[in-house]
């Protein structure tokens, strides 16, 4: 069984990261709403909280009580390097979007469409980071079922709710600020 200390350290890192991101997102949300932001996809937003809470609890439970496999040290390190890569993508998105980065879909009409930083190369770097993270964190501790279920549920939420809402929001930006 994977060391409980490893699981606690990894999940504590993830939880602290999420809390910091929520503080940043809340600050950016207040600023955006003060500028007249319109929110898209608010009804599906709680699904992400449920997903992430379930993912963390599933990783903790399966990793300590019922791991599908016991990853070797090199395998764990590969997953942790992939986790760090996901973080690099996430923070590249946060930097590129600045005050416009959020966990919600908020659009202020008249603001320009962002095409700098990581967004020059990748349309949804934060989503890629989350998809990668949802898979590699559980896999680092042998929690295969949690990795598969969280990845699947995230894909369903993204495809069914989040991406259509974001397309609608971006369409509003493009309609009001044509991109050459």
| Secondary-structure-derived class | mainly alpha
Beta fraction: under 5%
Give the overall pLDDT as a whole number. Answer: 90
Secondary structure tally, helices: 5
Oligomer: single chain
Strand line-up across the major sheet:
1-2
**Biggest sheet, in brief?**
2 strands, antiparallel
| Rg measurement, Å | 18 Å
Low-confidence stretches: none
**Number of folding domains?**
1
What percentage of residues falls in helices of 4 or more residues? over 70%
Number of strands: 2
Straight-line distance between termini: 55 Å
> What spatial form do the alpha-carbon principal axes imply?
elongated
Instruction: Label the CATH architecture.
Output: Up-down Bundle
Q: How would you describe what is shown here?
A:
The protein is mainly alpha-helical and 180 residues long. The protein has one domain: Four Helix Bundle (Hemerythrin (Met), subunit A). 70% of the residues lie in helices and 3% in strands. The chain contains 5 helices and 2 strands. The protein has a two-stranded antiparallel sheet with strand order 1-2. Helix 3 (73-97) runs antiparallel to helix 4. The longest helix has 33 residues, at 144-176.
Summarize the model shown.
With 180 residues, the chain is mainly alpha-helical.
Main attributes of the structure:
180 residues; mainly alpha; 2 strands; elongated; Four Helix Bundle (Hemerythrin (Met), subunit A)
Write the layout of secondary structure elements.
Blueprint: H1 4-34, E1 38-40, H2 45-65, H3 73-97, E2 105-107, H4 125-140, H5 144-176
Antiparallel strand pairs: 1-2
Helix pairs in contact: 1-2, 2-5, 3-4, 4-5
């Amino acid at each position: 069984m994977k060391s409980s200390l490893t699981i606690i350290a990894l999940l504590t890192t993830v939880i602290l990261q999420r809390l910091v991101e929520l503080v940043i997102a809340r600050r950016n949300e207040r600023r955006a709403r003060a500028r007249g932001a319109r929110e898209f996809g608010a009804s599906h937003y709680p699904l992400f909280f449920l997903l992430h809470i379930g993912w963390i609890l599933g990783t903790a439970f399966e990793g300590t009580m019922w791991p599908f496999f016991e990853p070797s040290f090199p395998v764990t390190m590969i997953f942790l390097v992939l986790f760090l890569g996901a973080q690099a993508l996430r923070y590249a998105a946060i930097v590129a979007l600045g005050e416009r980065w959020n966990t919600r879909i908020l659009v202020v009409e008249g603001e320009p469409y962002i095409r700098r930083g990581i967004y020059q190369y990748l349309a949804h770097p934060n989503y890629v980071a989350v998809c990668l993270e949802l898979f590699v964190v559980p896999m680092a501790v042998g929690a295969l079922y949690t990795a598969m279920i969280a990845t699947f549920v995230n894909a369903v939420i993204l495809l069914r709710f989040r991406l259509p809402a974001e397309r609608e929001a971006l369409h509003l930006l493009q309609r009001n600020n044509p991109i050459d």
